[in-house]
Amino acid sequence: APEQLRLQIDGLDMEAGLRRMAGRPELYETILKSFADSHADSITKLKTALESGDDRTAKRLAHSLKGAAATIEAAALHQAAVATEKAILDNQHESALAAVQTLEKRLEPLIRQIRQALIAPAANPARPVDADPEPVIARLKTYLEDGNPEALACLGELEAILPAAARLRPLVRKYAFEDALEMLTTIIPKT
After folding, report:
1. How much is the pTM?
2. How far is CA 174 from CA 27, 34, 140, in A?
3. In angstroms, rounded to a whole number, what is the distance separating the alpha carbons of residues 131 and 88?
4. Which of 49, 51, 117, 173 could in theory staple to 7 by disulfide, Cβ–Cβ 3.0 to 4.6 A?
């Protein structure tokens, strides 16, 4: 139930976000933290790409932000990312720059609120970790194959058992699940 969630963040539909995460507040919080970490420099990167005429990178960044905003249920941010991506696709440079300004007005306060809300110490101590990585690897593979955002939380669990799994984190944060799946095969311990 949404009341289990410790957070209250403007710009997010917390109930929908929690439903998307199968009613698991800890998973939603993990995804929100990942979102804040992954997109903290998105506006700077977008502006740089647009100013240097790198529309391909700008489109990719806007598209990534659009998907991430939908995942966390940030409707206004999602709409701003859609407008930014459309302006880039339509080759409307001035409109794209203006859309990025709107995007910035939505993204920066959201990231700030997420970080402030998640700074509070966790109420629950860390759970003991199962030392056998195989079941966790199997779950992670399934999540990656299905494009399930729960892959990030599962990856955190795997990192506690198999530190080399941390190499997957940048890919999973960017929702590059196919690339992460490919890299996962290189870090699985050989028995």
Report:
1. 0.61
2. 17, 9, 16
3. 47
4. 117
